[in-house]
Amino acid sequence: MTIRQICNVIDNQLHIKLPDSFKGKKQVYVIVNDSVDNRMKKIEMLKLASVDPLFNADIKEISDDFDAISA
Q: 23-29 — which CB contacts under 8 Å span 24+ positions?
């Protein structure tokens, strides 16, 4: 079984609460990825871009170019 979760680091320690299905397991494989902050920043930037007039104008221009090709 594989689970993915974002965990908080407190005092340079990581505490993971495993689901009941992990009871009796002697070992688990853990990968620590510190890119969560970067991913969240990128998602916020994408949300801002969706209401940015210049970005939307660029997207419309590209869409219009493809409409001309499709016709």
A: none
